[in-house]
Amino acid sequence: MAPISKEPRPAHAVTRAAFLKGAATAVAVAAAAPLVKAMPAFAAEASGLALRTVPKSFEGHVKLPVIGLGTRSMSKTDAKAVAGQAQVITTLLDGGGKVIDTAANYTGGDSEEVIGDALAATGKRGMAFIASKYAEQTKAAGEASILNSLKVLRTNIVDLMFIHNMVAIDTQLPVLEENKGRALRYIGISDTSDRQDELEKYLDRLDFIEFAYAADMRGAEKRLLPAAKDKGVAVLVALPLGRGRALQAVKGKQVPEWAKKELGVETHAQLLLKFVIGHPAVTVAIPSTLDPKHMQENLAAGRGPIPDEKQRAKIAAIWEGA
Ligand SMILES: NC(=O)c1ccc[n+]([C@@H]2O[C@H](COP(=O)([O-])OP(=O)(O)OC[C@H]3O[C@@H](n4cnc5c(N)ncnc54)[C@H](OP(=O)(O)O)[C@@H]3O)[C@@H](O)[C@H]2O)c1
Question: For the whole model, what pTM was predicted?
Fold first, then answer.
């Protein structure tokens, strides 16, 4: 993936000078991490995965593949499970994907460790874009969480850090802002509850938001998705498969022939992912899986035709009638 392209700079893009000026104010956690001097040089991809621009990236030139990986269920339960999870991560990266979404508290706190270990073992840290999160009340606890993420992810920068589930935003947003450009490349807030529309209030201060959106759960289309597009804030979509609920709803049914023909999908999971990435405000969908075959299948949804509004309406109708 090439960050430096000849595309015109989007209106929301942050200049390098402005980025570094902000970085100069960083304190606390930042002291433990070197100043970021440049964005990583992602290699050009031949994977065929669709790419989406991060609007507030350096000169608007950073692009991410539309399918990533959620790691909510990754944990160090036993060696066999860890090996399988490492294989999922390798499958993502070798297939041209980049975004790995984790959190300080996923599966008892060791999802980040699984990712850090897998990337260190394979030497693939440079191929990944790691998004993590924390939910802490105090400034000291927020900074400690960032430091711990750096340590267990075995990196000197977390590509994207979210305030998890909108916890203590007034305290934690300044912490993220102080450390942007040092320990953290981008900052955001996540929420998947029925309060997720409140993310809109903070868009001016954020690079990314993360929330729930799926063909059978389209509430974000009313305000959040258009607002993110309008403000130039990148979007990670959590629960794009409805945490399995949307797949359960069509169990035993055939994927419609029109969808196979027009969109090149073979499975309902791919159809659900196509629906999500077909929305123009969506940057990356992050379905979670512990199964390398499902990872392959999910990546394939990021290749080939992307549905237009008419096709997206037809996909949604499948779940309306399910
Ligand atoms: N507040 C927040 O910030 C927040 C909240 C929730 C989630 N998230 C993020 O969003 C990610 C995704 O959410 P989620 O895990 O709750 O829901 P999801 O991605 O919608 O669904 C995951 C489920 O779908 C299954 N699956 C994945 N690919 C499949 C395929 N190709 N075919 C059949 N089944 C498939 C997985 O099982 P297998 O393992 O068997 O594939 C898993 O049970 C999380 O991992 C997390 O990173 C963030």
Answer: 0.90
Ligand 1 neighbourhood includes 269 CB (under 6 angstroms): yes
User: How far is 235 from 160, CA to CA, in rounded Å?
Assistant: 12
CATH of domain 16-241+281-289: 3.20.20.100
99-101: strand order across its sheet? 69-70, 99-101, 129-134, 158-163, 184-190, 208-212, 234-238, 284-285
Residue nearest to atom 8 of ligand 1 (CA): 238
In this predicted structure, the answer to whether residue 84 has a pLDDT above a threshold of 90 is yes
Give just the sign of the alpha carbon dihedral 227, 102, 293, 42: positive
As a whole number of angstroms, the distance between CA 243 and CA 248 comes to 10
For the stretch 127-170, pLDDT in tens is 999 999 999 999 999 999 999 999 999 999 999 999 999 999 99
Per-domain boundaries in the chain: 16-241+281-289
Provide the pLDDT for residue 109: 85
Closest ligand 1 atom number to CA of residue 103: 47
Report residue 47's pLDDT band, with 50, 70 and 90 as the boundaries: confident
Name the residue at shortest CA distance from atom 27 of ligand 1: 289
Q: What is the pLDDT of residues 180-194, one digit of tens each?
A: 999 999 999 999 999
**Ligand 1 mean position, distance from CA 243 (Å):** 5
CA pair distance 269, 246, nearest whole angstrom = 9
